[in-house]
Amino acid sequence: METRVHPPVAAALRLCLHALLLGLLALAAVKAVSAGDQHATAVVVVSCVLAAVYAAGAPAPVVQPGTRAGACWLGVLGALWLVLLALSPDGLWVAFPFYFLQLHLLPMRWGLPAVAVTAAAAITSFLVHGQAVTPGTFIGPVLGAAVAVATVLGYDALFRESERRRELIEELVSTRAELAAAERTAGTLAERERLAREIHDTLAQGLSSIQLLLRAAERTLEPDAPATPHVRQAREAAQDNLAEARRFVRALTPPDLENGSLAAALERLSGRSTDAALTVQFAVSGTPVELPTPYEVALLRTAQSALANTVRHAQARRAEITLSFMDTSVSLDVVDDGHGFSPDTAPAGGVGTGTGGFGLPAMRSRARSLGGTLSVESAPGQGTAVALTLPLPVAATNGQDPA
Fold first, then answer.
1. How far is Cα 37 from Cα 42, in angstroms, rounded to an integer?
2. ∠ CA 400-290-299 to the nearest 5 degrees?
3. Residue 279's beta-bridge partner residues?
4. Residue 345 Cα to chain centre, angstroms
5. How far is residue 259 from each of residues 103, 251, 292, measured CA to CA in Å?
6. Helix (H) and strand (E) counts for the chain?
7. Which of 53, 185, 222, 278 falls between 20 and 30 A from 10, CA-CA?
8. Where would I find the beta strands (DSSP E) of 69-166?
9. What CA–CA distance (Å, rounded) separates 103 from 345?
């Protein structure tokens, strides 16, 4: 059943409705008695019963819009009112508060016919009792019904608009909270990556160079030379500190890289697309080698950014992520079959046909910081290909553990 939920009606309006209905019932009873109507006693009794039923149901918690209890209560009131109409033509005026009750308690598809039947019953009772027929006989009930319908429909429109605004405000507040949380998380991850990159590029590289130099110096000295133990101790201290620096770098690694290799992180990324219509495949080409943490972070973040733009803007059905290890470089390719865009006219802040999103400048900045390149190939209707190529460190190309 279709229901319309309203906030509590203002106390003054409720009191006015109660007073109007009870006052009209009292008026009908008083007029019947004062006119010496032959049905005066019956009119008084029916008016009192109708007033009692109304007074009992109006404050009842079960009498609510769209409920069976509300419809039953309204039906009892209507039956008593029809009896009053048969006894006295003055019962006609009770139709006006009835209009509002019907429109308030019944779904609109039932409320409008109920109002029409009530107006017709009021006019018919006036004619049956042989009252003088005037234009007001017909216009009064019809005009009252029209005013009631217009009032309730206007109130419903205002209520729906108020609800839409309330929902919009709640959505905006929720979105703002989510954005703030996302910004805090992004800031934390960015700072962790920056610290890992700084430790790797400065402290770890410096300790690695010191270790290599001390190893070379140790080989050039005679085994029984007095300085040999000191050189060996210095080399061991540098090696220990290098291991500690690497531990710091690993501790600052993004969560996606904490529990596995870069290939495993990209595999997980391809399997958790938020677009049900998009199929993402991942492949590894060449012989994988261990990469420094900044390289893994740059490759993973680029894949996340490119795939996010595919989901948001490309309306693609398929996407492929390929991690390729070559002799002197490593590359990441993210290709989709979406509707593409023109790279020359793309917004500065994003990849894809829409504005915003993960930006090309951030991807290119990561590539430049590691001596690599980022290329984007796309055209309207021809999909998009994003490729990041990074030169492999010398240690990685020689099969050694990169710092």
1. 10
2. 140
3. 318
4. 30
5. 62, 11, 16
6. 13, 5
7. 53
8. none
9. 56
Q: Let me know: does 238 contact 207? Beta carbons within 8 Å.
A: yes
List the beta bridge partners of residue 329.
391
Q: What is the DSSP-derived secondary structure letter of residue 10?
A: P
pTM of the model as a whole? 0.42
With helix as H, strand as E and coil as C, how does 41-64 read?
Answer: HHHHHHHHHHHHHHHHHCCCCCCC
Structural contact between residues 282 and 266, judged by C-beta atoms closer than 8 angstroms: yes
Mean pLDDT of the chain: 79
CA-nearest of 14, 30, 15, 16 to 91 is 30
Q: Rounded CA gap, 134 and 54, in Å?
A: 32
Q: How far apart are the first and last CA of the chain?
A: 69
Q: What are the φ/ψ torsions at residue 66 (nearest 5 degrees)?
A: 80, 5
What is the per-residue pLDDT across 210-233, written as a single tens digit (0 to 9) for each?
A: 877 777 777 776 666 555 677 777
Sorted by sequence, the CB contacts under 8 Å of residue 28 that are 6+ apart come out as: 43, 47, 84, 88, 90, 91, 93, 94
Query: Which amino acid appears at position 297 of this protein?
Result: V
- Token reading at 66: 């769209």
pLDDT tens profile 296-331: 888 988 898 888 888 877 888 899 999 999 989 999
Higher pLDDT, 161 or 394: 161
- Name the phi and psi angles at 378, rounded to 5: -165, 160
| Token duo for residue 378 | 């796309």
Beta bridge partners of residue 281, listed in sequence order: 320
SS3 387: strand
> What band does 358 get if pLDDT is binned at 50, 70 and 90?
very low
Residue 109, both tokens: 């598809």
Output the CA–CA distances (angstroms, integers) from residue 377 to 103, 155, 356, in the order listed. Answer: 62, 56, 19
- Cα dist from 228 to 2, 175, 233, 240, whole Å: 92, 65, 9, 18
Tens of pLDDT along 106-127? Answer: 888 888 888 888 888 888 887 8
